[in-house]
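Co-fold these.
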Amino acid sequence: MTKETFFHCLELLRAEYSKWDAPAKRFENAYRRTPYTILISTLLSFQTRDEMTLEAGKRLFALADTPEAMLRLSEEKIAETIYPVGFWRKKAASVRHVSRELLERHKGEVPSTLRELIELKGVGPKTAKIVLENAFGAEVAAVDTHVHRLVNLLGFVRSRSPEETDRILERELLPEERKGLNRLLVSFGQVICRPRHPDCDRCPLKECCPASQSRSS
DNA sequence: AAAACGGGGGC
DNA sequence: GCCCCAGTTTT
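Predicted complex below.
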């Protein structure tokens, strides 16, 4: 698929974007939508479904929505609050550790550069990019499994891993061309073009989807 | 029973 | 780059 065709598809998606803005939904209920709550929400979200993350975040941020307040909670308290997200034990420790690092090294503020974010223990490249994208509006290619799967499905790139896709997109697309691309594709992958049961009936890409022929529902 | 979920760290 | 880690919901 050529770049032009790819962008045409993105336009089709963008036209109905407001109907499936799942990432925005993930953070809008986060008690107060701040870089800190976004960072913590993202830490909680890995290997866990959105609904669980949302509920856990709501309960946790009702108790503490700043690093100072979070450190006043014991690790056990945090753990029992965020249950039943996956890996709750590890995540509770991570939430507390990151909060302490923010206070000690960043005056309690969430840093806004990739390098500083990754230096926080428990924050890797994926989490860091998601935070940059959602908390600071950075146009980064935060390629996750959805984005990786979709650009390969459409045939825009051919790669084996999300990391490789990430590098290709950063190389092939100018920053302004990446604008909004990630949130668009993640939402699309979560709501319409799901891995297992794609909702092809509601799909705005029916016409240009290479796989539409081999699918029934 | 198996898949699915926007990983990270240590080496 | 490779391997290990760890848990819950949904199907």
